[in-house]
Amino acid sequence: MISRRAILTHGAASIVVLGSGITACGPGLGQAREPWSQAGTGYDDVRLDALSYAILAPSPHNRQPWLVQLDGDDGLTVYADLSRLLPETDPPNRQIVIGLGAFLEMLRQAAAQMGYVAETSPFPEGEPEPLLDQRPVARVTFVPSGEVVRDPLFAQALSRRTIRTPFDQKKPMPVSALEQIGSALTAQMTGFDYALDMERLDALKRICREGWAIEIGTSRTHKESTALTRIGAAEINENPDGISLSGPFIETMKTVGVLTRENMNDPQSRAFRETQVFYDKAINTAMAFGWLTTADNTRRSQLQAGADWLRLHLAATEAGVAMQPLSQALQEFPEMAEKYAELHALLQVDAPARIQGLFRFGYASAPEPAPRWPMQTRLIKD
User: Fold this and answer.
1) Which stretches does DSSP call E strand in the chain?
2) Under 8 Å between Cβ of 202 and 217
3) Cα 53 from Cα 36, distance rounded (Å)
4) Average of pLDDT values for 229-252?
5) C-alpha closest to that of 225 among 370, 100, 328
């Protein structure tokens, strides 16, 4: 058995990786990953079949902030789960709405695959401002159609992964791959651009590193992440959302008391310092950056940005390209204001337009799928 002293001496804490959605999942997570194998297995209701895919959509901090009420025989209403917001790192709930947009896009694609048009009315009772509230995010009606166009990106629905490890530095990113990924955007509401030149790559890496340092260096925002960190398979299986840390080494560190939320919150701890080292290394291996912009920042634009975020990710998966969102410098808490402004100035995006998503691209091996709550737990019971 490895002793606590040995772990501290030999730097086991260096594998502790926190932050917005960082996941180091290992064995023992079969229960938390079951939704990936259950998608589309047949629920005798096209809405449930489509929802079994929609719950696999990405979301900030893997919060899975969706609740669904089935309406009649052919409809459903999507609500934001107000218990799953990120008030410190996402004060205006913008990132949560983007996650809901990805959910609705995955729902649309799954419905089309089964021969249905998902007719969607976003914010049917008005756009919630300044914060999300109990009003519906969208109402969806499933209409059978022999002319529905199946989306080729849906083939990647079960293969999509957010890859947070360092990228292969010996494999450059070709322009053709980024052009292919960008062509997945079909709506005119969202724009996509990218950077491959060293000057902008270096500037973007710096801004991302500094944004990350601000997030973990601001006590309340960092504590929001550590509070949502699930340490070890037992915690992850019990709460399959948030930031997951698992694997044999993690289990050992938890058992001997090295890996605790208290240590994660202590700026003097090795775990805290190595977290930043890990994230900086990942940022520095970006072979390209891409970003999504919208002409304004309405809730509808945020929903569309989420749909296009998912489409970009599915297209990247199809192209064999690794993709990771780097959202820190886009967050809207006061300490991040300078980085937010610097990023928009660098990429020449002027208000009222704004950047809705920033991503690093490269090549790396794909991990196992991230934990998910079972589809049935996201349904509102009458």
Assistant:
1) 66-71, 75-80, 116-122, 138-144, 190-195, 229-231, 243-245, 288-294, 322-325, 354-362
2) no
3) 8
4) 92
5) 328
Measured distance CA(221)–CA(223) in Å, rounded: 5
pLDDT digits (tens, 9 = 90+) for 229-239: 999 999 999 99
Whole-angstrom Cα distance, residue 278 to residue 6? 21
Asked if residues 95 and 69 have their Cβ atoms less than 8 Å apart, the reply is no
How many other CB atoms sit within 10 Å of the CB of residue 198? Answer: 8
Q: d(Cα 98, Cα 320) in Å, to the nearest integer?
A: 24
Sorted by sequence, the CB contacts under 8 Å of residue 12 that are 6+ apart come out as 2, 6, 249, 252, 253, 258
Judge whether 374 and 37 are in contact, CB under 8 Å.
Answer: no
Q: Residue 291 CB: number of other CB atoms within 10 A?
A: 20
* Reported pTM: 0.93
| CA atoms of 300 and 105, how far apart (whole Å) | 13
Q: What would the pLDDT profile of 287-305 be if each residue is shown by its tens digit?
A: 999 999 999 999 999 999 9
Q: Are 158 and 39 in contact (CB under 8 A)?
A: yes
Q: How far is CA 209 from CA 279, 282, 284, 285, 336, in A?
A: 8, 10, 8, 12, 12
pLDDT band at residue 272 under the 50/70/90 scheme? confident
Rg, the chain, Cα only:
20
Distance CA 246, CA 369 (A): 13
Residues in the chain: 382
Contact 206, 350 (CB under 8 A): no
Q: What pLDDT, on the 0 to 100 scale, is given for residue 275?
A: 80
Asked which of 18-22, 67-71, 350-354 is least confident by mean pLDDT, the reply is 18-22
- Residue 47 tokens, joined: 């809405």
